[in-house]
Every structure is written in structure tokens, then in C-alpha cells.
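TL;DR need C-alpha cells for one chain.
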Amino acid sequence: MEEKGINPNIDRSKKAIFIKGLQKAFEDNVILRGVDLDLYKGENLVVLGRSGTGKSVLIKIISGLLPADTGVVNVLGQDVCCISRKEMDALRLKIGFSFQNSALYDSMTVKENLEFPLVRHAKEMTQRDRDRVIDVVLEAVGLAKAIHQMPSELSGGQRKRIGIARTLILRPEIMLYDEPTAGLDPITSIEINKLINEVQRRFNTSSIIITHDLTCARATGDRVVMLLDGQFQREGTFDEVFSTDDERVKAFYNYNFTD
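>> reply
TL;DR here they are.
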């Protein structure tokens, strides 16, 4: 299992996301208990945790899909807890959200799926410009020949790639990946991991990758944090996070790699 090498393009003097004291509960069920988190410009940050630990809640709060109960959530210099709906809508255009199920429209071709956000949010673009941008993102995910296919004609890995391409179409500064390898076979998962790193390099994105897949975490993460009991209990490189006698961390590792 190959660990990602050192990324010289991370700018630790600039934070794409700054979170301090974030708390979130649903009635009596406390999910996040005072979370602190920084995402640096150009960084791939992996958030590890078991199902139900609040990983997806975290990125929904970052993207303004859920409100925080308390705490500071600053994204690209704006406090998402305090900005207007219009300001939040504008900020979301700078945030790419890669959904677990790819979220493609089944009734549209690949081209139409990619064109949809351009027609909606970049009305000034000509058809020629839209076609050019679509060609660029399809080439970036290695599926230029799939442009006229329907989602039903694609494999799970291809749909995932097209979902990432559609996320990239507006050139977001931040990418949020929600379980990017879920439901994929090992070979396809490796391809998606490589694509995440290629997106980071080619489009200069800052990314949060939510996963419980340790192979994905090790291959894509410049830094890894582990969410346990509503807080980040471990942080560092992949090896640093798992160099511990904490039974909760060891159990998580063994769940992934012990038959």
C-alpha cells in the first residue's frame, strides 16, 4: 500500500478552510464536539472515521448544507455561519462537491450533464466556450470518448469520473470528496485515487477527502486526521496516525486490513 509522497505545492501560510470549536447535534445525539480543523491551500486532507462519526456532517456544514450549532467555519475567508444566502450561493460555486453516488442525471448524456452547471452559472459563455471546457475536464478524467454516452452505459468507476468532471467544470478552489471509492472494486479504486491526486496537481485544488478506506487515505492524503468520539484525536501522515497503542485506532486499522 503506497503512501503519498511530500507535496511541495502546499502553502501553509494560507488556509482554504479554518474551523474552530465546531459543534453539531441532532436533538440528544451529539455528533461533533468542538472540532478544530485547518485545510491549507494546495493540500489534500483526509478525514478518517467509522460510519456515523460525523464525517459527512462536517463537509455538509462546510458547504452550507447544514448549519453549525456553535463554532467558527471559515471557507475562503468567509464565515459560512454568518453570510447571506446570496453570498453562500456565490461561495458554493468555488466549492466542488463530489457525491458518493456521483449524482448524475440519468436522462442526460455525459455532455449534457457537464453542460448543465455551465448553462446555469456561466450564462455569458458561448457554446464554443462550453464545448472547450467540457473537452478539457473529460480529457482530465480520461473519458473524452464517453461524451455522448448515457450514465446507464457507464461502469461505476466511469460514473465516478464523470461526477468528478462535472464538479470540476466551474473550476472550484476547494474539492470535497465524500467516500470517493465506496462501492468500487480495488483496481478501479486505485484509478480514482490517482485521479484525485491528478486533479490536485492539474487544477491546484485544496481538498477534503472523507473516507473509511485506508488505501484511499494513504494514497491521496498529504495529511490525515481521524475523527473519534466527535473530535479529531489523531493527526499527521498516515503512518503517524496509526503509530499508536490507542485500541480505537488499532481496531479501525484491523477492520480495514484483517480478514
